[in-house]
Amino acid sequence: MTQDFYKNRLAARGLKILVPDAGGIETVNSVIYDELCRGVISSVSRKAYVDIIRSLRSNGAKGVILGCMEIGLLIHPEDSPLPVFDATAIHATRAALAALC
Q1: Residue 15 φ/ψ, nearest 5 degrees
Q2: Is the dihedral of CA 78, 82, 85, 88 positive or negative?
Q3: Is the pLDDT of residue 2 over 90?
Q4: What's the pLDDT score for residue 37?
Q5: What confidence tens digit (pLDDT) does each residue in 39-98 have?
């Protein structure tokens, strides 16, 4: 989420990019690799993610991109105080539409 590849592509489309602070990034990565990749879905981790999303909202975020495929296992639209854009679902939908055209 901090790589220019992602940020620059979104910024080129007029989006202002906010990322969690260092502690938030550490939490996000830890939950992904230590839990979600191992099939562990934790309500404690869900709350931590929601807290990070709330922090981003307080800094002006208007939506949240779930940019790693596993995050959608943990965070659903009804969990988030902001609109959720699940990159996995978006890619899957686009791939299906492309296959049908």
Answers
A1: -95, 135
A2: negative
A3: no
A4: 96
A5: 999 999 999 999 999 999 999 999 999 999 999 999 999 999 999 999 999 999 999 999
Phi first, then psi: give them for residue 53, nearest 5 degrees: -65, -40
Residue type, 68: C
Q: Give the angle subtended at the CA of 56 by the CAs of 50 and 57, to the nearest 5°.
A: 90
**4-14 per-position pLDDT tens digit:** 888 888 899 99
Place of tokens 């830890």: 30
Cα gap 94→38, rounded to integer Å:
27
Q: How many CB atoms lie within 10 A of CB 66?
A: 22
d(CA 68, CA 59): 22
- 3-class state of residue 67 by DSSP: coil
What CA–CA distance (Å, rounded) separates 36 from 101? 34
